[in-house]
Design goal:
two-stranded antiparallel ribbon; 2 strands; 21 helices; 426 residues; globular; mainly alpha
Amino acid sequence: MATLKGVVTADRTNQYLHLTGLRGILVLESFFWTFFEVFIPTLVSQLNQGAEYQAFLRRIFSVPFWNKDLIHNFIIILSMRTICNSFLANPTGQTYAATVVRRIVRMVVIICMGSGMATLIFTQIGTGYIDNFKTELPNEIIKTPAVAHNAVAALNSLFNLFWITTDFYTQAANTFWPNATLWVSSIIYFQSFTVYFLMVILPYTRPKWHVQGIGLFAVGSYWMASWGWYSATGLIFADIAINTTLKAELLKGLKIRGDWRVPYWVVALAFAAIGIALKYTWAVLPQYVNSMLVLHPYLDLSENYSPQTFEASGPYARLDDWFIICGVMLVVELFQNVRYFLSFKPLVWLGERSFSIFVAQCIVFWTAGIKLWLALSGKGMSTAGANAVVFVVGLLAVAVFAEMFYRCVDLPSRWLAKNTYLWLVD
């Protein structure tokens, strides 16, 4: 039993604090994006007509600080990077089973609690005030959450979170969720099994063939416009970080010919530059934001899809985001100073509470935040003044809500996940 307890707690060490800290940065960006999308929508979308200075700020600052697609896709790849750490570091059957069982139990608990809470709240208070808010601000980009018409519909929405393999964005639970971002959790859960399948092969094959093998899978999933190439990307970075042979190759540089090698920091800068250039191109020319879908051949060959129908089905794994994420992750793996900075305690503290903050900010701003804004606006306060008050009050409310969710749901879910695994094997 003592050995098993060591297995289920082995991955929560200081070795991976920088990954938690990186998640903390994404939490901060997500917080600002959530607030801006509701109360200052011109800062996040060209579809909302607002002040010209807000549109200018969006074009300049949204890419590095509050870009929706980049935040969500970075979280997905980072999650794929972290779930295989314990197994790759200690490739045993017990570690593998513990990784799979714990994650399933924990994700089911926290996602069901968060989704169920939001569904229950909107069922009780309704959504009419959101429609009033959208007209009064005005906000032309947010969608009013759907309301479950009965308990069975709400229960089915929770069930579908863990069983559907397509249409993540249009699933019921995502339409019930404020700002419709619960699809990210479904993608992470679903793609975890892709990582589970691939990672079990790595410890028993030649390290120098790992990148080519996983890369071949990534090319196939990219062809199919699947999320699998994001999962493969996260797994490659985990393997490079843990496998000493691959880590040494990373530090030597990219071999071009003979002894001529290009340092990987040059590759990282090139990738980041390509991704950022594409992002700013879409910011200036938003009509081309989905133009790169033509690079997924399956969409033109399939009878069920086309680039246009695929785009309409919801967010997808974007190539521009992939370039930026790979550039950042390469820098993280190459430089100890960067990992030291990301291990800064406040960032780690935020990263540990990432899902709790996600739940809190979505619910708080879409319920109490909007209601407070309407009350302040009704009393004659200016839009800027109301936004400032809502931001400060919302920040405090999110901090309290998130800490309560973390202690009452997140931490108990970890205890339950660990003890469920121990119960299954004892």
